[in-house]
Amino acid sequence: MSNQNIELAAFVGLDWADQQHAVCVQEAGSNRRDKSTLDQTPEALHAWIQELRNRFGGKPVAVAVEQSRGALIYALMHVEFLHIYPVNPQMLAKLRQAFHPSGAKDDPRDADLLLEVLLTHRHHLRVLVPDDVLTRSIQLLTEGRRKLVDERTALTNQLTAALKSYFPQALDWFGDLHSPRACAFLHRWPSLQRLKGATPSSIRKLYQAQKYRGQDKLEQLLQDILKARPLTEDEAVLLAETMMVQALVKQIPSLTESIEDYDQQIAALFKKHDDSTLFGSFPGAGSTLAPRLLAAFGSDRNRFEFAAQIQELSGIAPVTEKSGKSCWVHWRLACSKFLRQSFHEFAAQSIPHSNWARAYYNQQKQRGKSHHAAVRALAYKWIRIIFRCWKTRTPYDEARYWKSLQLRGSSLAAALQPAE
Fold first, then answer.
1. Residue range(s) defining the domain that contains residue 325
2. What's the domain count of the chain?
3. Does the residue 420 lie in any domain?
4. 417 pLDDT exceeds 60?
5. Are residues 66 and 104 in the same domain?
6. At 140, which CATH number?
7. Is 398 helix (H, G, I), strand (E, B) or coil?
8. 3-state SS string over 104-154?
9. 3-class secondary structure, 36
10. Nearest-5° Cα angle at 364, 347 to 284
11. If 108 and its partner were Cys, which of 22, 74, 96, 166 is the partner (CB 3.0–4.6 Å)?
């Protein structure tokens, strides 16, 4: 029986807030709406769930919420009689604007709107079906890892900006500023003036402690330090910027260590997953992107019926707007940014590892598309391929796909050589 055909005992609109939560309940077959509020405590939420269970005898109850994850979802998704319907915030915002042009907004009114959406547009909503614990763990961990990487990138950008203002040579000498060696070096010698006072033996010892093996490059660095001249001697600038650099290089290694911990945990869980071989088979996915592809699709094969659904959800599919004779195609703004990053980054990584992907990317570039537009177009094709493999539980085979391109007479086939 589909979720639309389940006989529901009641419908609930639940607007989650920081302090109190607005609730609007309508029993099936009735026009009466009961409105109430819940305190922001686990005890109050569980007491309310028990009240619903007692009131409707444990029969199915539909609940509309303006989120797809978070504290509320985590509390409700395993309650056996509740059917959770996440509502896109943009949908609710448009309805609020349509029904209340004044712009007035309050939580009870939003709970009422959520209930209205549930009652009149439930066929446009999808009931939340949680993945298994292993899959959800990988999903949450890969997103958490990405947040840490973004934080480290932001700190590294701040570090770059600070060094440019008084010690630009460091940008050429150390390569990746988030590397342990660069952070250790800048923590000890945050300015060229302090570095000039260091002995060559002390610099060599630091590099040895970092297990550096490029002896020739180290000797060249020592020569460059001798010849280097400071960009500025302004004491105010040096004091402020060196303190900022030292503050940043203390934080970056901690984030790097945490990212490595995430990598180990994700790898261990990914290895246990039934779909690890499938998602690990895509060229260029590697240890980082294979778990992210798994997280994007999940383990529930009924979640997506067509590849277009995940192309749109991820924002890889463009949006076409038509009005009269005008037509405007642009990229999708309302989407999961993490999903879009995952597919975009995977497509880029596949180019050096897949013959057809490289040929397709080159075709897009020859047509005048920018690098990122060409990668998005490639990601669009990859999603269809991954979707098919995922649906049939079949690992990807480059040679098999190349043969299918030949059989279809694809323009890519002429540009390809048989995969080895």
1. 276-415
2. 3
3. no
4. no
5. yes
6. 1.10.287
7. helix
8. CCCHHHHHHHHHHHHHHHHHHCCCCCCCCHHHHHHHHHHHHHHHHHHHHHH
9. strand
10. 20
11. 22
User: Is 246 contained in some domain?
Assistant: yes
The Cα 25–Cα 33 span in angstroms is 5
Same domain? For 125 and 174 the reply is: no
Residues forming beta bridges with residue 64, ordered by sequence position: 13, 85
Q: Count how many residues are written for the chain.
A: 420
How wide is the angle at C-alpha 13 spanned by C-alphas 8 and 19, nearest 5°? 140
User: Which tokens is 309 given?
Assistant: 């659904």
Which domain CATH number covers 64?
3.30.420.10
Around Cβ 18, how many Cβ atoms within 10 Å? 6
Q: Domain boundary at 96, 130, 164, which?
A: 130
The span from the CA of 155 to the CA of 111, in Å, is 40
Paired residues of 121 in beta bridges: none
Task: State whether 223 and 341 are in the same domain.
Answer: no
Residue 383 located in a structural domain: yes
Give me Rg for the CA atoms of the chain.
28
Task: Quote the tokens at residue 224.
Answer: 């460059």
d(CA 327, CA 90): 23
Task: Please tell me whether residues 118 and 174 are part of one structural domain.
Answer: no
* Residue range 225-269, pLDDT digits in tens: 999 999 999 999 999 999 999 999 999 999 999 999 999 999 999
> Model-level pTM?
0.84
